[in-house]
Amino acid sequence: VLVVLVVLVVLVVIESGTIVIGFPANLVVNFSNYVFLCAVLSVFMSITALSSSYLYFDAQANEIENYHDEYHSIEGIVISNRYYGTNLSGFDIIVTEIDGEDTYHKATLSCQYISILNPGDKFEAKVYGSGFENSSSSYNKELDMHSDGIFIDYLSEDESALEIIDKNVFHPKIFFKDLNKRVSSVFAQKLDGQTAEMCSAIFLGNK
Q1: CA distances (Å), 101 to each of 68, 72, 109, 180, in order?
Q2: pTM score, whole prediction
Q3: 100 DSSP assignment
């Protein structure tokens, strides 16, 4: 949308279809065709982005909510470790199959035991789907998870009901998460604390 607005401003400024560039030769370049092409591409990209947002955050979010408050059999890939506790563990996952039907959605997996799962593991499990509850008045967990495109948590109550069926499965999200960690580590080593955090936020999108 911002790109479209910039293009519209340029169109207003360049009423004659030409603009003078202050190079030594006073080069005059006709931009009318290029500006029109940029405007068309910008509108197309904006429509595509809005459509993608609707398809995932609205249509798919509504579909995923149908999996809440029920037991399911799922297959998925572990993307990253989320936490480990005394008798708990949690993971970010991509679900590729649910109750025998193909799907593709992000989720969290909460285990009521210390799981041996690692990023890149493909697994199948019997789980219970649910939404997110806020643990305190100062932290809106549901809003935080939804902002990451995650609309469901799958609870694994029984370790024997989870089986690793493949290991070291490649997934782009795993690759980029690993790359993010490596670059963040370089920032931390080469820069002071606050500057490193700022660079990680600006260049890597880390919170």
Answers
A1: 16, 11, 19, 32
A2: 0.67
A3: T
